[in-house]
Specification:
The protein is of the alpha+beta class. It folds into two domains: 31 residues; 101 residues, Immunoglobulins (Immunoglobulin-like). It has one helix and eight strands; from the N terminus they run αββββββββ. The strands form two sheets. A four-stranded antiparallel β-sheet has the order 1-3-6-5, with no helix packed on it. It is globular and about 70 Å long. About 11% of the residues have low confidence. It comes from Flavipsychrobacter stenotrophus.
Amino acid sequence: MKKLMMLTICLILSGAVATYAQETKAEINATSDAGIMAFNELVHDYGEVPEGPMAEYDFVFKNKGKKPIVINKAVGSCGCTVAAWDHEPVLPGKKGKIHVTYNTLQRPGPISKQVTVMSDASEPVIVLQIKGNVKFKVMGMVTNK
């Protein structure tokens, strides 16, 4: 019984500590004068796209903070999703973009991929998402006569 009581107390305390840590981080970010990445959208739906050509999209953001934003890394959730960006700092009040390319070749069916963007902005990690559906490409039959 004592062990159960101790375990319960430990769980409650660890939950309280985790909650406090998250609140403290949010307060630091809110008062920071770091850059703020304000994206037009975090999710882009390609809709129906044909199999074969690359599906591309630019996630545009504005720096609404007081300091420049430097993007350190932007990584797709798999090798079929690639992110590119201008490696120059995005100054306050200016716009930047993350260019996302999805390779549709031999990937018919639903698309649901993420790009994780890491920067020195007030929110250091932002996850962008692409979705849609790749239409199966019907190949012509080859016959020998």
